[in-house]
Design a protein that fits this description.
- The protein is an alpha+beta fold and 116 residues long.
- The chain has a single domain, classed as STM4215-like (2-Layer Sandwich).
- It is 17% helix and 52% strand.
- The protein has three helices and five strands; from the N terminus they run H-E-E-E-H-H-E-E.
- Strands 1-2-3-5-4 form a five-stranded mixed β-sheet.
- A hairpin with a 2-residue loop joins strand 2 and strand 3.
- The model has no long low-confidence stretch (mean pLDDT 91).
Length: 116
């Protein structure tokens, strides 16, 4: 399973539509609550016998909602990814999107995957 397949599977557990950042069409209606993700960096972090044995992924995951109270609890919600071996780095509120009336919160996570 690729990193992206695993990430989508992990995000599906929240019960909201999850798509890559920027993938919604210009005239596509947005759900009341949705999640976007974007890979920030990936790279090899550990070696064994001259071969990569561990890869690090840094991903930004953003939750958007029309209800501001969903954003107020977004960090706690997204931190549930710790159970899937994601390491929380930092989080931040995103600017209000006037055209869609969505509030936003983004968090950066690291995930380490052993390669064979």
């Amino acid at each position: 399973m690729s990193f992206y397949e695993a990430l989508l599977e992990d995000l599906a557990g929240f019960g909201y539509l999850a798509r890559p950042q920027g993938s919604f069409g210009e005239n596509e209606p947005l759900p009341e609550i949705f999640i976007t993700y974007m890979l920030i960096t990936s790279g090899e972090t550990a070696y064994s016998s001259n071969q990569n044995s561990l890869r690090e992924y840094r991903v930004q995951i953003a939750l958007y909602a029309k209800d501001q109270s969903a954003i107020e609890s977004a960090e706690d919600l997204l931190k549930q990814l710790k159970a899937k071996d994601y390491y929380f780095i930092t989080g931040r509120q995103l600017p209000f999107l006037k055209d869609t009336q969505h509030y936003g919160y983004a968090a950066d996570f690291r995930k380490y995957i052993k390669e064979t």
